[in-house]
User: What shape does this take?
Amino acid sequence: MTAEYKVHASVAVITLNNPPVNGLGLSTRRAIIEGLNQANADAAVQAIVITGAGKAFSGGADIKEFGKEAALQEPNLHTVIAQVEQSAKPVVAAIHSVCMGGGLELALGCHYRIAAPGTTVALPEVKLGLLPGAGGTQRLPRAIGVEPALNMIVSGESIKSEMLAQIPGQKLFDKLSASPESLAQEALTLAQQVGERHAAGNEALPLVRALKCKHPKGDAYFGFVRNMVKAMSKNYPAPLKCVDAVEAATKRKIADGLAYERELFVNLMWTRESRALRHLFMAERATTKISDIPADTPTREIKKVGVIGAGTMGGGISMNFLNAGIPVTILETKQEALDR
Assistant: This one.
């Protein structure tokens, strides 16, 4: 099972457990739905927490599913997020370490979000020639404002949770935990509190999709941004489509905006640019794997490296180890020919 289900007092905890980054592949999506159904059917449960095991909340969609039947097979990520939003009991996202792509979109569908300090947050799909395809272009502008959201989506760059929490009026995080270590307990406490209030009928469940999304300068702002992005993106179509999608969030109802975003996403997926970027991404990942060595083979810690020869190759090898934080000792040798 790629998601674990446990109950702590009145709180059900769904923990994504799909190493290495808790990708939201088909089996994980099914497990989330099963956990939501189980929690909502249990009268003793008042609230639900979704979090991730290991070193990530979630790194997003499983790129290996792109262009394959599994990517569209139900429940797809849209269906999962809709069921989270429609949960009869409050759902709290306990975010830590890495929250990217579909992982951030899933968190945006939760009713409450608590994040650990130091969490890396991003919607990096543009780097694969795509745009966020599960509501990111529609919900993130509602949560942090149009301009910060558009900057994140068009650049694909990551931002730390502390920086996002400082955005005036942001609704992305309800709370930052005191530390990464205290996140789990603080998330349980928050879930218990909102669960009790909701059970007593004192609090309606908040939805990011219900927040307003406007820009004070409207058409002028998007015209300026579109011209700037066009000049910078050159032959890549995705950045301009990101602008179109975020603009739609300011002009369309959420359902229409989500449908438009999905249309743009599907069209971009089949472009030559996106297919090439995804191929390159997978090829780079493949270089870290050796086919005849099992993935669970234990590794030895490298504490120091010695390189013989400081020529072009030796220098390059040394720099790679130094960039990885590994001390290097370079030994230069010289052999003189003997005249006989």
